[in-house]
Amino acid sequence: MNQKALFAKADTFVYEYLRENLPQEFVFHDYDHAQEVAEVARELAEKADLPAEDAFCLVIAAWFHDTGYTEGAEGHEGRSAQLASQFLRQHKASEATVETVRKLILATHADHTPGNFLECLLHDANKAYLGRKRFERRANLLRLEKEYAHGQSYSLLDWQKHLLDVQMNMQFYSRQAHEAFSKRQNKNMAELKEDLRKGQKLAIRKKTGKNFGRGVDTVYRVTLRNHINLSSIADGKANMIISINTLVLSILITAGSAGFSMTELGLSSNLKFIIPVLVLMLSSLSAIIFAVLSAIPKVSGQSFTREDVQNHRVSLLYFGNFLKLGKEDFMEYLRDLKEDQEILYDDLSRDLYNLGAVLDKKYRLLSIAYRIFVGGLAFSFVVFLVTFFIL
User: Fold this and answer.
1) Helices (H), 209-260
2) Which positions ≥6 away from 234 have C-beta within 8 Å?
3) Where are the domains of the chain?
4) Cys-Cys with 28: which of 141, 295, 328, 388 at CB 3.0–4.6 Å?
5) Has residue 265 got a pLDDT over 50?
6) What is the C-alpha to C-alpha distance for residues 382 and 385, in angstroms, rounded to an integer?
7) Choice between 222 and 345, residue whose per-residue pLDDT is larger
8) Are the C-beta atoms of 301 and 316 separated by less than 8 Å?
């Protein structure tokens, strides 16, 4: 069988084999990739004016070099070489040809540096997509394969950085491939660099909420103002409870000391009214205590280390925290906030959360104070009625 017919056989065999055995998640290392590499390998062989036998080995190796992906990426070179050897032996190829093809396929390993001209040509054919117009489409397929087949996850910015690293670290070894693909590779790198710059700007805008105009700033501003207003309302309610109960307590103490005569005549008749008065006094005093605990100013800070500050695990926007630092350290901290708006918004979020925690404590204490006040009034009234009508 002549070489042209054997190429057709290899084409059909690889197509059928991959169609039946290749997992669906391998969308890059598929038949289209094998066909592309084989076509480029044939073109490079013609440009290099290779002997017929060498050109044959190069193209066959290009067809089979990734067929081992049917069982996964790890060790696919060895499986591909074995499959190519079986195919060639079935079609009566010489052992010298089989061995050449096997070594060429094994040389496609990512860590291998080409050792001869044929290996250089196969390497260049395999990486030719980096210097072609279809680079972006093929790169997107490669990203899908890495995410679905290998479980890797890339943001758009991370993927652009990865592709740029691949382009910068890849070189064509043969003059033929360099002439054919280097100009387009340089253009692809320039476009990647520009896309990366735009992607970084978009990432910054996304992190800082700039894509939403002033919406994020407004959310923080309104939420912080609402929390401060709620704190003022809580203090006002606490002051009202304190004022009312202080007045009640003062009246009860004055009235009790003046009106309850401990003479022998009035002792029995006046003692029975001491119980409701004491209940009301105790409830008023308890309400005052909880209201004061709610309104009392509390200057406390979070315990943190210098490492916490450097890694931005603590918010220093609260004076109870930043006063634990020196002035220069605090100024350096603010400079970092101005340079990285993501950190700035994170610190605002921490500050907002801490303010919410303070409000939660205020309103819980204030709720207890109101309940004690209302409950004490009701209970003292019931005790008074019982005392007046029954005792």
Assistant:
1) 215-259
2) 294, 295, 359, 362, 363, 366
3) 3-208, 215-389
4) 141
5) no
6) 5
7) 222
8) no
Between the alpha carbon of residue 121 and those of residues 176, 259, 280, 361, the distances in Å are 8, 113, 98, 73
∠ Cα 127 128 132 (to 5°): 135
Give the separation between CA 249 and CA 246, rounded to whole angstroms: 5
| Cα dihedral 226→230→233→235 (10° resolution) | -130
Phi/psi of residue 116, nearest 5 degrees: -145, 175
CA distances from 197 to 10, 133, 139 (A): 44, 21, 18
How far is residue 286 from each of residues 202, 217, 367, 368, 371, measured CA to CA in Å? Answer: 57, 42, 12, 9, 10
Q: Which residue, 26, 24, 87, is CA-closest to 61? A: 87
Residues 157-205: pLDDT tens digits? 888 888 889 888 888 999 999 999 999 999 988 988 888 887 776 666 6
A 10 A CB-CB count for 226 gives: 11
On whether the CB atoms of residues 106 and 77 are closer than 8 A, the answer is yes
| Residue found by looking up tokens 């490492």 in the block | 307
Q: For 315-368, give the secondary structure using H, E and C.
A: CCCCHHHHCCCCHHHHHHHHHHHHHCHHHHHHHHHHHHHHHHHHHHHHHHHHHH
Query: What pLDDT digit, counting tens, does each position of 2-13 carry?
Result: 778 888 999 999
The CATH code for residues 3-208 is 1.10.1300.10
Give how far Cα 107 sits from Cα of 110, 120, 123, 345, Å: 8, 9, 8, 51
60 in Cβ contact with 93 (< 8 Å): no
Q: Note whether 141 and 28 are within 8 A (CB).
A: yes
Residue appearing with tokens 């652009």 = 160
With 0.90 as the threshold, say if the pTM is over it.
Answer: no
Residue 320 CA to residue 330 CA, distance in Å, equals: 13
Determine the Cα–Cα distance for residues 247 and 251; give it in Å rounded to an integer. 6
Round to whole Å and give the CA distance between 314 and 180: 55
* Structure tokens that stand for 366 in this block: 């204030």
Per-residue pLDDT tens for 29-49? 999 999 999 999 999 999 999
